[in-house]
Amino acid sequence: MEFGINFFPTVGPDDKPAGTYFEEALRLAELAEDLGYDHVKTVEHYFFSYGGYSPDPVTFLAAVAARTQRVKLVTGAVIPAFTHPLKLAGKLAMLDNISKGRLQVGFGRAFLPDEFDAFELSMDESRPRFAEGLRACRRLWAEEDVVWDGQYYTFGPVTLLPRPYQRPHPPILVASAITPSSCEQAGRDGHGLLLVPSISKREKVQEMLTLYRKAYADAGHPPGGDEVHMSYNCYLSEDAAEARAKGKLYSQRTNATMIEAVAAWGERRSEGYAGYEQIVDRISKADFDRSLSENKVLVGTPAEVTERLRTIREWYGEVTVSLQIISGNPPYEESERSMRLFAEQVLPHFRTPA
User: Fold this and answer.
1) What fold is seen in the domain 2-350?
2) Are 106 and 173 in contact (CB under 8 A)?
3) Is the pLDDT of residue 5 over 80?
4) Mean pLDDT in residue range 10-34
5) pLDDT given at position 353
6) What is the largest distance, in Å, between two alpha-carbon atoms of the chain?
7) Which positions are tagged coiled coil (predicted)?
């Protein structure tokens, strides 16, 4: 298994100045490399305390690239619907070169109505815009003199500069929330997968993974490209009671910021987001203790978290785990402690001996 850090900020100006947030996050990214983590990842969101301090993953990851030498850089995820593919492909190719081939590109659809409204886009178009943007970026990276005549974009012939450092292009990951067909399509296309297991029942996640892995194998893609990233809120302490109490506190803070961000779903419906009108009620009824018992959060002592991960590996196989150690806005010192305890006492149990 591989492990990394996912920076999902749940913080706003009333909590922490943006400059302070970025200073602390970059220190933690450097620490991730020093402690032997495999990747650093961040999200794309706007306007709300729920992710709003990360409107451009590429900018943050470029700063991480300048401070590190080894750790992979993962967008988790960029939103092609919000950026023209010529711009998005160019920015990502720059980052791939700056980092000397350490980039993995996660693409996502987005799901917050206020973001689509601000960009003056229909949520009903999110799936075809996602698919077209991803395909256009992939062609711009892999080919020259690209001519594109799609549903939303027309351009060419153009040859993107710079060319990606990785050829034909950086590894691609596709974010899937609750839709099995999206996982199946990612497998057919030969992409990796980004999942958030906390929002689905274990059996549903296992179904999605089975469909994905079968589609990947049936399409004849080479072994090793079917990487699955899973993100988990994470809080470690050597004191079990402290870990549980503070893990619960920070999970509740995260949910509070998410409720604000998804509030528009109370009055919004979209064919492309079946069931999302229930999201506010589901978050309001979130039960941390149940999530803990179902291994949907990595909270506890190092020994307890080790056992949770062993169970997760039994359920889902050899996946890549992203630790959300800043969500809920814990003090910097506590995030650093969680990272150190995990690296020193948990991670070695999951490393394959040389």
Assistant:
1) TIM Barrel (3.20.20)
2) yes
3) yes
4) 96
5) 57
6) 61
7) none
> If DSSP states are collapsed to H, E and C, what string results for the chain?
CEEEEEECCECCCCCCCHHHHHHHHHHHHHHHHHHCCCEEEECCCCCCCECCCCCCHHHHHHHHHHHCCCCEEEEEEECHHHCCHHHHHHHHHHHHHHCCCCEEEEECCCCCHHHHHHCCCCHHHHHHHHHHHHHHHHHHHHCCCEEEECCCCEEEEECCCCCCCCCCCCCEEEECCCCHHHHHHHHHHCCEEEECHHHCCHHHHHHHHHHHHHHHHHCCCCCCCCCEEEEEEEEECCCHHHHHHHHHHHHHHHHHHHHHHHHHHHCCCCHHHCCHHHHHHHHHCCCHHHHHHCCCCEEECHHHHHHHHHHHHHHHCCCEEEEECCCCCCCHHHHHHHHHHHHHHHHHHHCCCC
β-bridge mates for residue 103, sequence order: 73
Q: Domain ranges in the chain?
A: 2-350
- What is the per-residue pLDDT across 209-238, written as a single tens digit (0 to 9) for each? 999 999 999 999 988 888 999 999 999 999
Dihedral sign, Cα of residue 301, residue 313, residue 70, residue 20? negative
Alpha carbon distance 93, 88 (integer Å):
9
